[in-house]
Design brief:
Layout (H helix, E strand, L loop, with lengths): L2 H23 L31 H37 L1 H16 L2 H12 L3 H28 L2 H8 L4 H38 L10 H10 L6 H28 L2 H4 L3
Family: Belongs to the binding-protein-dependent transport system permease family.
Keywords: Cell membrane, Membrane, Transmembrane, Transmembrane helix, Transport
Organism: Microbacterium salsuginis
């Protein structure tokens, strides 16, 4: 683990830990209480200043981080489970099963990410469910492709072939032979999917198709801050910086996981 990855883990860990503590203990203050006038400068009562309603920005930031992370994590976990199942079936059985899975994936992959997210939101209405389903639809195609390739490579190895010839049941082969050997690939793809999920949630909320008022998310806070950029630039800058830093840290961690589970010597041959 290099120094850059350690730094990314520390920074992301601080953001997550502070958010969890703020959510559980309320140390940052109330997200709805008015603590001063509109657009006040940072002070002891409001360390990051106040918003257009006189509320402290700090607890709103933590609420936004919590919402974005929860929505993104739920979506990525669901996407990882579905992608792993579909990739395993397509990679292990091949033939018709692979064709069906890959055609479904190709249809989803054909849509531009933001267009697909807006389409989902338009069909089911804006809110958290729309953001979660949009993220799943966007991240499944690439994850499924990668899991399928990894599964095919493992399925052709001797220990899997011998288990199949010996009459070992397919669920047992999946659980004991395939999954442990593709877990690293799934972890790497899930880390990248998480950064995509945060970006998609932020984009949807910024456009008004994601999390809705009175809730807060990083994208929604950026949207609201943009309206008052000249009066209180911190309303835009703070959530924007946190969004960028979080995505950057996750991508750095993903690169570290990729180097750990997929050495360059192996990747250069593919």
């Amino acid at each position: 683990m290099d120094g850059l990855m350690r730094l990314a883990i520390v920074v992301l860990g601080v953001i997550v830990l502070a958010t969890v503590l703020a959510t559980l203990t309320g140390w940052a203050g109330s997200t709805s209480a008015t603590v001063g006038g509109r657009f006040e400068a940072p002070s002891v009562v409001a360390p990051l200043g106040t918003d257009n309603l006189g509320r402290s920005l700090l607890p709103r930031i933590f609420e936004g981080i919590a919402t974005t992370l929860v929505v993104s994590l739920i979506a990525v976990v669901c996407s990882a489970i579905l992608s792993t199942a579909m990739g395993l079936l397509a990679g292990y059985y091949g033939g018709g099963a692979s064709e069906v899975v890959m055609r479904v994936v190709d249809v989803l992959y054909a849509f531009p990410a933001l267009v697909l997210a807006i389409l989902v939101s338009a069909l089911i209405g804006p809110g958290r469910p729309a953001a979660i389903i949009s993220i799943i639809a966007i991240t499944i195609p690439l994850m499924t492709r990668v899991v399928r390739i990894a599964t095919r490579a493992v399925a052709e190895r001797d220990f899997v072939v011998s288990a199949r010839i010996s009459g070992v049941r397919t669920p047992v082969i999946f659980a004991r032979r395939l999954l442990p050997n593709i877990a690293g690939t799934v972890a790497v793809q899930a880390s990248y999917a998480l950064s995509v999920a945060i970006l998609v949630e932020g984009g949807l909320s910024f456009l008004g198709f994601g999390v809705q008022v009175p809730e807060a998310s990083l994208g929604l806070l950026i949207q609201q801050g943009m309206l008052y950029m000249t009066l209180a630039p911190q309303l835009l800058i703070v959530p924007g910086v946190i969004l960028v830093v979080s995505i950057l840290c996750i991508n750095i961690i993903g690169d570290g996981l990729r180097d750990r589970f997929e050495p360059r010597e192996t990747r250069s041959l593919t």
